[in-house]
């Protein structure tokens, strides 16, 4: 039987596009039979959190509590829960529900659910009671057991957090387009997603090049596992790599011209946009006659996300993180916007106080 006792939770959220984030008291629902209550230990900060808190995409409902790179331990389980038990190290990514019966959900692509789309971890609407969903900048969360993943023992909790979005969003396209030994991959934008893209593609055996505006990141690119660094403002260097890459994994978070990156692709090469959600500037379709593919990709399904966590544990692929207190989140947003993060902020939830 479902419990009716709700759980008070401490959180940080925004009340308007320009409010910044501040302390907020919220309530987590009482456990349904298939629910898990998680004490959150860490939550990563994704650029999507910033876009959402500031309503960059025009679809934010306030108040909003961002956070979809969530790790913690199981504190209680509903009566029918079989996947998780008290004390387990677990994680939640960008979605907390989907219909689980459409063709896409059946194909383990819950993020593309055909019945109303996935239910976002925040800024979503609970499928059963219509209440708003609140994310991981909080000390606890309740979610349906299928959407709760297992954190492998060898992954430290703080480092595991960014894998739930930055990790899976880059892992999924690399797998979809069968990147492996011999592949030539370029990663555009060396931020949270980009640095995971570099590490994952390198771990899969690809030759990896970083495409960046920031000359200051040249040294880091190599340390992260890249074989080359291309400053995108260096036209001659860009031209020299024309027709070279199998894939450009484009993580740039703003509207921009994707043409220079298409030039870098070989025949049948693919540019995957995972960053920008906006109208793109005009481009000449003639460029695609070289049988180049321009596409996008959204996070990854539940099974693939678990596979990615296990892959990262097996190959010791961990993000570079800067751990911060919850109270410093607004500064972290400003620094992220200025590309001043190496390479993912992670909130230590102990800072919220017991
Ligand atoms: P991030 O940490 O801020 O990194 C983005 C990087 O892009 C920056 O470090 C910078 O790299 C480059 N960049 C930033 N502004 C730029 C500009 N004006 N022009 C050109 N390059 C710029 O962000 P993130 O967390 O990785 O997220 C990246 C994007 O992916 C966001 O828009 C986010 O919403 C989106 N996202 C999508 C999915 C999905 O499912 N598709 C999932 C998660 C996030 P350099 O300094 O190297 O140039
Ligand atoms: Zn994200």
Keywords:
single chain; 354 residues; alpha/beta; Quinone Oxidoreductase, Chain A, domain 1; Rossmann fold; 7-stranded mixed β-sheet; 6-stranded parallel β-sheet; globular; binds NADP nicotinamide-adenine-dinucleotide phosphate; binds zinc ion
Please give the number of β-strands.
17
CATH topology of the largest domain: Quinone Oxidoreductase, Chain A, domain 1
SS summary, helix count: 10
Average pLDDT taken over every residue:
97
| Radius of gyration, whole Å | 20 Å
Q: How much strand content do the residues show?
A: 25-35%
Please write the string of helix (H) and strand (E) elements: EEEHEEEHEEEHHEHEHEHEHEEHEHE
By CATH, the architecture of the largest domain is named Alpha-Beta Complex
- Which class of the largest domain in CATH terms? Alpha Beta
Brief sketch in words of this structure:
The protein has 354 residues and is α/β, with parallel strands linked by helices.
What is the topology?
Elements: E1 7-13, E2 22-28, E3 35-44, H1 47-53, E4 70-77, E5 89-92, E6 95-97, H2 103-106, E7 119-120, E8 140-144, E9 149-150, H3 157-160, H4 166-176, E10 184-188, H5 192-203, E11 207-212, H6 218-223, E12 228-231, H7 235-240, E13 245-250, H8 259-263, E14 265-273, E15 293-296, H9 302-315, E16 321-325, H10 329-337, E17 344-348
Parallel strand pairs: 10-11, 10-13, 11-12, 13-14, 14-15, 16-17
Antiparallel strand pairs: 1-2, 3-4, 3-8, 3-17, 4-5, 5-9, 6-7
Helix pairs in contact: 4-5, 4-9
This protein binds NADP nicotinamide-adenine-dinucleotide phosphate and zinc ion.
């Amino acid at each position: 039987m479902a419990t009716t006792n709700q759980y008070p939770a401490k959180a940080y959220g925004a009340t308007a596009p320009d409010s910044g984030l501040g302390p907020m008291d919220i309530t987590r629902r009482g456990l349904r039979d298939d629910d898990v209550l998680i004490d959150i230990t860490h939550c990563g900060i994704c650029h999507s959190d910033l876009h959402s808190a500031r309503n960059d995409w025009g679809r934010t409902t306030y108040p909003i509590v961002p956070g979809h790179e969530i790790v913690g331990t199981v504190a209680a389980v509903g009566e029918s829960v079989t996947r998780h038990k008290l004390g387990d190290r677990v994680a939640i990514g960008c979605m907390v529900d989907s219909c689980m019966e459409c063709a896409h959900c059946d194909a383990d692509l819950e993020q593309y659910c055909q019945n109303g789309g996935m239910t976002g971890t925040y800024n979503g609407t609970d499928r059963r009671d219509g209440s708003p969903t609140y994310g991981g900048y909080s000390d606890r969360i309740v979610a349906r057991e299928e959407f709760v993943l297992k954190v492998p023992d060898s992954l430290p909790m703080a480092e595991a957090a960014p894998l739930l979005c930055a990790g899976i969003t880059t892992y999924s396209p690399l797998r979809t387009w069968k990147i492996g030994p011999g592949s030539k991959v370029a990663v555009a934008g060396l931020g949270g997603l980009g640095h995971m893209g570099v590490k994952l593609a390198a771990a899969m055996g690809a030759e990896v090049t970083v495409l960046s505006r920031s000359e200051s990141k040249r040294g880091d690119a190599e340390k992260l596992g890249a074989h080359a660094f291309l400053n995108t403002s260096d036209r001659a260097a860009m031209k020299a790599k024309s027709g070279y890459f199998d894939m450009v994994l484009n993580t740039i978070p703003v509207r921009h011209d994707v043409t220079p990156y298409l030039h870098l692709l070989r025949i049948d090469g693919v540019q995957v946009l995972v960053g920008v959600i906006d109208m793109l500037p005009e481009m000449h379709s003639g460029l695609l006659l070289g049988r180049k593919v321009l596409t996008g990709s959204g996070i990854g399904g539940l099974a693939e996300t678990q596979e990615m966590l296990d892959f990262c544990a097996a190959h010791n692929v961990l993000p570079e993180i800067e751990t911060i207190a919850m109270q410093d989140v607004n500064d972290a947003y400003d620094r992220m916007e200025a590309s001043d993060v190496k390479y993912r902020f992670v909130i230590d939830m102990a800072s919220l106080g017991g």
